[in-house]
């Protein structure tokens, strides 16, 4: 009696403890928890939206992702809630998928997929890695091919002589701008415009109005989430670009989110920059 | 005069122990997601068992340890500095630990959270040692107002250093720093080795303080009176500083900066059991443990509302503030003090 009771406790326990992270990419319906908005967007783009059983509160792209149950933020993850979602696969940034969280999830048999989405190359790699891990290799290849085609089209899309001088604003107060070391700086570089922010150790430096006036960009791109009336503020400060109506809003929010739509959004931005400069 | 043990305070102490046990049981039973407790204990719900054993149990124990450490050290510093506003972070420990933890987060030495904890612990002790050294007069006595001033200045200096670091690092790193600085029990310090280490330091320091309790009682009568009953004020102060510092450093190194607990629990404990440190100290440790376990339970239960676990320090302040004022007014009304 006692032995059977012990066995009843010990067997599932041992099973739970020993379950080696099984690789089962062809699982019929993998349950996926995504701790990265970029990965969530990729999963939906690969047609895996129904399999996402947990996401962060920042996962708002596409619209359907807003209805996925929340398990926390990108860094402040509730382990209990993740476990309760019974995931087979957990995708997150390497700084989250480690230590206690990683150990606990692996003990329960979930596979962990640490990914970083901070450049177009990492977006492509992320799409392919997710595709392999979820058995959607073909879909992932065609999505990646589409992103690659968009990136190719982006190359030099806004190149003019002399180059268009652009300032990309990502935050209003304080005024945070995209430096050459940021992924936005990389996109500007690819489209062939000149980023007026000089290279520095900080990817997204904070600027004063004085620096904006001195840099005197041809176009200001407004990518700040809460920007107020940036154009009016810059115009009243006397910025020539603002007075000529060359403060443009990003055509697509996806450009500030390195995900599967980032290259397409960057194309739209390149066209918008050229349009506002060349408009009569 | 201080040898008499009042029966009611023992009853209160017993009640507090029961309260702590009850709060810890609740903390195991409830959380962000519902748990099949019966299934977990029977063994047919391995996931629920994992949540219970690997998540809620270590977290509850950690909350109790940190709460006890912060409250007891708060009481000790208030006594030895003769200042009711002294909280365990005021003596520079907050700044020291914050710099240590921040540096470890920014420049990880592949030690993960162990590195963060160890670095915070070392810097916290270093900051206290510095404050202590700088605030001694020529004959080696610690001047309370200098401890407080130097502590406040050091904390302000440290927060400037941290704000600078935050401004120049990547957004994700900055966020990680901020989460740690706000104080959290959901960090990665959940291994039993880390909890065992913290528990050992806290237990030894608490025992040390308990042994010093009679001397602390004497010291609260004034240094000359203390000396007349054979208590060496300088040595007592030094020993209390050491024990208190170990407590705060241990707490900060695993949980970041959780404010308010070390300030209000000592006052509440004294109101409940009197200011005899032999009663107040255990009351503080047990009460502080129960308070922080309850606050942490609150952050987890409220997860579905905010979609995040609110920083536990926010909850301790929001709930603790009004409750403390209530206890204070009720206490002063009952004893006729103003």
Structural commentary:
The complex is a heterodimer of chains A (280) and B (338). With 280 residues, chain A is an alpha/beta fold. Chain A starts with a helix and ends with a helix. Chain A has eleven helices and ten strands. Chain A has helices at residues 2-18, 37-45, 79-84, 99-107, 120-134, 137-154, 183-191, 209-215, 230-236, 240-243, 262-278; strands spanning 32-34, 52-54, 89-92, 111-114, 165-171, 175-177, 194-195, 206-207, 219-222, 247-249. In chain A, helix 4 (99-107) links the parallel strand 3 and strand 4 (111-114). In chain A, helix 5 (120-134) packs antiparallel against helix 6 (137-154) and helix 6 (137-154) packs parallel to helix 11. Chain B is 77% helix and 0% strand. Chain B has helices at 7-29, 37-42, 46-80, 93-106, 112-134, 144-168, 171-182, 192-219, 223-228, 233-255, 261-273, 277-301, 303-306, 312-335. Classes of the chains: A alpha/beta (280), B mainly alpha (338). Chain A binds chain B through residues 8-13, 15-16, 57, 70, 72-76, 78-81, 83-84, 86, 93, 95, 98-101, 103-104, 107-108, 201-204, 206, and chain B through 31-34, 42-44, 46-47, 49-51, 54-56, 112-113, 167-168, 170-172, 175-176, 179, 184, 186, 188-191, 300, 303, 307-309.
Classify the helix fraction of chain B into a percent range: over 70%
Q: Helix- and strand-based class of chain A?
A: alpha/beta
How many strands in all of chain A?
10
State the total count of DSSP E strands of chain B.
0
Q: Which oligomerization state do the chains in this entry correspond to? A: heterodimer
Largest sheet descriptor of chain A: 6 strands, mixed
Computed Rg of chain B: 20 Å
The 3D shape of chain A can be described as elongated
User: What is the CA-CA span between the terminal residues of chain A?
Assistant: 90 Å
pLDDT below 50 for ≥5 consecutive residues: which ranges of chain B?
334-338
Tally the helices of chain A: what do you get?
A: 11
State mean pLDDT of chain A (0 to 100 scale): 87
| N-to-C order of helices and strands of chain A | HEHEHEHEHHEEHEEHEHHEH
What form of chain B results from the Cα inertia axes? Answer: globular
Mean pLDDT of chain B: 84
Helicity range of the residues of chain A? 40-55%
Give the ordered list of helices and strands of chain B: HHHHHHHHHHHHHH
Main sheet attributes: strand count, strand direction, barrel closure of chain B? none
**How much strand of chain B?**
under 5%
Rg of chain A, nearest Å: 23 Å
